[in-house]
Amino acid sequence: MRLFIAEKPSVAKAIANVIGIEKNNKNYIECKDLTLVAWCFGHLYELAEPDVYTDVNAPRSSKTNKKMWRWEDLPIVPQIWQTIEKEEHKEHINMLFNLIGKCDCVVHAGDPDREGQLLVDEVIEKAGFTGKVLRYWANAIDDKSIRKALDNLENNSKYECLGHAATARQRCDWLVGMNITRATTLLHQDIYTVGRVQTPTLNLVYQRDQAIKNFKSIDFNVLKIDVTVKNGNYQATFQPSDTQQGLDEEGRLIDSAVAQDIADFCKDKDATVISVKKTKKTVNQPKGFSLAELTATASKVLGFTAAQTLKTAQCLYEKRCTSYPRTDCCYLPTSQYEDKSFILDSISLICEKFKDACISVKDSTIKSKIWNDEKTTAHHAIIPTFSDSKVDLTDAEMKLYELIAKRYIVQFMKAHEYEQTEVLTKVENYNFKTIGKRVLVNGFKDFDKDEDDNKEESNNLPELNEGDLGTVQNVNIQKQKTQPPKYFTEGTLITAMENIHRYVDNEEYKKLLKDGDGIGTSATRASIIEELKKREFIKVDGKFIKSTEKGANLLANISEEVKSPILTAIFERELTDIAENQKGIGALLDQCVDFVQAEVISARAKAKLLSKKVSVLDCPYCKEKMFEQKFTYSCEKCGFKINKEIAQATPSVEYYQKVLNKEDVLPLVFRSKENKKFKAKLELDYANKKLVFKFESKEKTNSEVSKYTCKICGKGLIRRESAKKKGVFWWGCSGYPECKQTYFDDNGKPDLEDKKKNKE
């Protein structure tokens, strides 16, 4: 008996459907040929938390019961790494173990990438399976792709290095995230998460924001002349020489007086065409969609967030409409060219608006440059897949499907061709240039016209030849301003992460980053942006992404190495080498540990400098002096901490001194989360190591304890005024709340015989 284990239920069901379903069970499917098909729910295991590796006697938080974060525990470097079952999946894991125990062959059907390899490998390894393990590998879940993968099962050992790379990635992220986050949080006395990819991404946004903030616009002048020749009219733009007066260092004409002098000089002068250069240019069909390119396009055209694009693309994949979405490849294997008729039929079925376009290219012999085996990785570009029935799609899914389908259809259309004419015109000693464009073959742009095409000037020039003479009829001076860079959108930020080499000056690192895949992966970039938003390091302002004050504070107190994309890119390259079986994981982990060690030492040194302001407060537990930070008073020895501000009130240090010494204090005015005022005293809850509110009795005391005594407990009575009826009094026991005896008032005396309440 053999068992297929897929990464998720939708893939498992698609595989089972092709094999032939005999019985559907709750968590697995019985198929023909003694085959079982089961599934995971993504990663069923996770790395153990730092508490597993730190001092067993470390103090614990009263709120979470987790060990408190302390400098003395850092850096945390596991000697033996532990993975644990995710609590919500324990029952499912046991079921998988039971199925594995019944089989002599397990087929690994995880998604075709590093993480997909690891998450199924983990299950097989934890189950202790020693039988035959094969690997199913498919980039799509349409029937044709599944059959092809089923016919080409290989030994799983061929792919196990992908899992090793995923393990290395997990551990490196854990080392950086757990240690530097804790160090930075202890430094700031507030939660500041740091990530191997997350923080350089934040820095990209912050640096762009600063460039915009500090940008100083420059006014400059653009001169254009209207020239009349025998064959018609054309316009030309002034081209300053190297010796032209009034230019800035970028060659812009910033001196308005000089611009006006040139304009006045050229008016009505003779103009001579000194050169005409014609060049035929071709714009090839756009490459296929990688996830980064799809995200950028969906952001620009549809307004989708990165997370929305990834989620929608995943849904299309699981509905068997498109190929695997988490890809960084823009090409297709040449073998897939023969599938075009089936895929075009599927597009016509799902998206009727493209039916005519699909019919028009079905017999096309055009083969664009998208088909390239040398540039196809383990994944290929995102394309529609074969489907023989109409699929119900949500509005978002249909919009994204249309983008993917349109990109596929244009591969069978002609390239866009045009003739570019460059004309140089001289007026006395001044040169002017004109660029003309004449479309020869519109090609795929008839069907897939980008919005940027509308911005292009279609400058059809009259027939011009070298030596033609004309006259300057008019001179225009256009006042323009230099523009700041644009804020990132989620789409452009994804593109920047993928093309991070553009933001690096060092030529060696620039080449390394250009050859690699940037920072993050196609599968993780959207989630990184979501995490930055969740942690309030960046914010969404309309369609733009901007850094926050909290994000700026984080970047101000960490090293350039943590902020830099260079280390992250080097790590990714190392992971690629591991995945290709060129290296083991040990060297990368050692490199990561050294890096983390240095960062922790640096952060602790900064913390000591910032924390050395000794307050007058004594720790009630250690009797040591407490240190004053920006927002807290804390004990470095045991970790006891109190906030300077509590419920929108800021008690004085003298007030805190009395509270910690258990002296009586006056009530203060605080505000609740709903901004309602309330009065209370602060008191130390010694057992739970925290301050609590102590509320006074709501009863109002109108006089001192009288000579009259309570008949129940013998304590003095107090005369009180009714809260509801002014001028009406009653008597209560001073032993309240232990004694709750009350009496009616009888002309200023308690009626000891006629009780108001009987609380015996």
Keywords:
Topoisomerase I, domain 2, Topoisomerase I, domain 4, single chain, 32% helix, 760 residues, 7-stranded mixed sheet
Write a structural description:
With 760 residues, this protein is of the alpha+beta class. The protein folds into five domains: 167 residues, Topoisomerase I, domain 2 (Orthogonal Bundle); 124 residues, Topoisomerase I, domain 3 (Distorted Sandwich), CATH 2.70.20; 122 residues, Topoisomerase I, domain 4, CATH 1.10.290; 81 residues, no CATH class; 63 residues, no CATH class. Helix content is 32%, strand content 22%. It contains 20 helices and 28 strands. Strands 2-3-4-1-7-8-9 form a seven-stranded mixed β-sheet, sandwiched between helices. Helix 3 packs across helix 5, helix 9 crosses helix 12 and helix 10 packs antiparallel against helix 11. The termini are far apart.
In short:
With 760 residues, the protein is α+β, with helices and mostly antiparallel strands.
Question: What secondary-structure arrangement, pairings included, does this model have?
Answer:
Elements: E1 2-6, H1 9-19, E2 21-24, E3 28-31, E4 35-39, E5 45-47, E6 83-85, H2 90-102, E7 105-109, H3 114-126, E8 132-135, H4 143-150, E9 154-155, H5 160-188, H6 198-213, E10 219-229, E11 232-239, H7 256-266, E12 270-283, H8 291-301, H9 306-318, H10 340-350, H11 355-361, H12 395-409, E13 416-427, E14 430-441, E15 469-481, H13 490-498, H14 507-515, H15 525-534, E16 538-541, E17 544-547, H16 549-556, H17 560-563, H18 565-579, H19 586-611, E18 614-618, E19 625-628, E20 632-634, E21 641-643, H20 653-660, E22 668-671, E23 677-685, E24 690-694, E25 717-721, E26 729-733, E27 742-746, E28 749-757
Parallel strand pairs: 1-4, 1-7, 7-8
Antiparallel strand pairs: 2-3, 3-4, 5-6, 8-9, 10-11, 10-15, 11-14, 12-13, 12-15, 13-14, 16-17, 18-19, 19-20, 20-21, 22-23, 23-24, 25-26, 26-27, 27-28
Helix pairs in contact: 3-5, 5-18, 5-19, 8-13, 9-12, 10-11
